Task: inverse folding
């Protein structure tokens, strides 16, 4: 706690970058210390009897609540479905905890609920329990939605951010930065040409197909807040490995790339909501890519890098002209309320 | 949805009274329709393989966040522990989803986390997964904490608000209205004499002792928002029974009773955070009371009423002078952010 004495919470503490990381490792982990939490994966892997289950939670405060490609409702369903799926589990049951501002439009609420219904059906999960609170006007900006969920790990896979090994290949399931750039440009009313929309989508079907095709996936993560930069740095630290990424191998839509250049943003650090990073042994690259390229949510999947050594927990990016730059964990992302 | 077209969310929609009830039954249930949600209990009862589990969620937005007897942190742990316990389950694992306002004091956050740690230890549960978001200043008033949780139902008990039967007795585990009156008087700086503090406490140990002593408990509910009035009306409707309560049998501290009289509040509709209502066959009254009177959290347990018929789903209160008044579901409770 000492490092935070007398300080105040800053926006960066919720960014998914190093400020978030410090808050969690210095304040939350010591308080709630237990082996499940220490895993630091997208969901906790637990046991009920002989069953392995995954349990995850996420609160969504995205602004604006309606954006091209989705709204806070389907984002909240897909987000927790994906966190559960990243442990190799089949998501089954979700809870929904809503906090709504007094004066919020019932019509908007109904649109959000219908999106949640559709997203739950689409992902094959049931919303089985809920809670609704109302805060007086001006005490909350609109609506915040927590989804928590339970899934069952049916295979004997062992998937965790601490399992990356030297020689493993890093695959991303599609183009990066779509969600974050959509929210940013829509929020600030930037007039951007071209089709820009959130990639929010449920990845559980893709994950179960991947596991069926190759049962030695080492790591699965969905690069949300902090983008692939945060995920790769977390894996580098949790597995104590050095990661090398080929910059020009990372799929990105031209219009998203142009936006990032225009705004001076690094797309590697921008949030995605329908993509995953898979880290697999070289022998599993072919079957993984084969599954992905035949799945509608991963047609642009590509190998983007390699675990090159177990010397230092760092991430390097090799540029097309042969340069090499360190990809550090972002402190914050200057984009609050991205999810 | 038609009944809400063009309307706006009001504070009463989060009160636990009939406005909340209408919002849930008219908007949420139709959207998320499934048999688990339809149970409308404090937690959903699910199965994982052969195991019966309980899953529950609750978001806490209490104001002020620190109050006599506790703070938002232990309230959030105890609240979800209790919702799980009310299905007869042993709570095991909790998630914590925090949304914090930019500028929030780290020292306050640490006090809250330490209270959560202590409450989790006290209840015998582990916090295994979490999420933290930050909202810009003035977009959220302080902090909101969602806790969700999983428990295992180890006995063959069948506990649900739809199981009350004619002849059953209604037991309350202790004095009512302590939490709500504490928040109200503390928030408004009312100078009240006497010891007034929240009753926030984990009821899981009491519930497991009750189940061990009598395996035919029909209903367990913790009367939080909307107090015992809401719980009794919900049971009356879900079990289609008429309930009669003896007004002078309901335990209440003199100072709480005096406060309610002074403020013109009905203590039956005021929130509790460490009490339960048990509805049991007459033959189980003695063993239930015996367990309660020997448990530190239920020394003032008392039989307060009876399921008198299966004619109409109503709740009556018999007054000491022989009168009889209808105890209707409150619309709202005029006390937002009580939990």
Result:
């Amino acid at each position: 706690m000492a490092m935070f004495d007398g300080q105040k919470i800053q926006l960066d503490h919720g960014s998914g970058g190093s400020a978030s990381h410090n808050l969690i490792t210095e304040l939350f982990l010591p308080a709630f210390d237990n082996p499940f939490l220490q895993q630091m994966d997208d969901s906790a892997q637990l046991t009920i009897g002989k069953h392995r289950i995954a349990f995850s939670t996420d609160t969504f405060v995205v602004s604006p609540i309606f954006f091209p490609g989705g709204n806070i409702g389907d984002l909240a369903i897909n987000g927790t479905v994906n966190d559960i799926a990243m442990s190799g589990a089949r998501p089954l049951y979700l809870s929904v905890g809503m906090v709504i501002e007094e004066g919020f439009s019932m019509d908007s609420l109904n649109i959000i609920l219908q999106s949640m219904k559709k997203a739950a059906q689409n992902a094959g999960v049931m919303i089985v329990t809920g809670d609704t609170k109302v805060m007086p006007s001006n005490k909350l900006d609109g609506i915040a939605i927590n989804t928590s969920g339970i899934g069952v790990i049916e295979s004997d896979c062992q998937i965790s951010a601490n399992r990356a090994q030297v020689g493993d290949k890093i695959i991303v399931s599609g183009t990066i930065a779509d969600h974050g750039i959509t929210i940013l440009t829509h929020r600030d009313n930037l007039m951007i040409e071209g089709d820009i929309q959130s990639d929010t989508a449920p990845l559980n079907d893709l994950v179960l197909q991947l596991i069926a095709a190759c049962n030695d996936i080492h790591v699965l993560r969905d690069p949300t807040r902090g983008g692939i930069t945060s995920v790769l740095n977390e894996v580098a630290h949790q597995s104590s490995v050095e990661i090398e990424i080929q910059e020009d191998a990372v799929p990105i839509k031209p219009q998203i790339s142009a936006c990032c250049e225009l705004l001076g943003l690094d797309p590697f650090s921008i949030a995605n909501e329908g993509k995953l990073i898979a880290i697999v042994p070289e022998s599993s690259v072919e079957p993984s890519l084969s599954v992905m390229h035949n799945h509608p949510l991963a047609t642009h999947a590509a190998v983007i890098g390699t675990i090159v050594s177990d010397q230092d927990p760092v991430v390097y990016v090799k540029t097309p002209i042969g340069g090499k730059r360190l990809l550090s964990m972002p402190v914050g992302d200057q984009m609050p309320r991205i999810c």
In short: The CA atoms of residues 58 and 146 of chain B lie 6 Å apart. The first strand of chain B starts at residue 44 and ends at 48. Chain B touches chain A through 82 residues (CB under 8 Å).
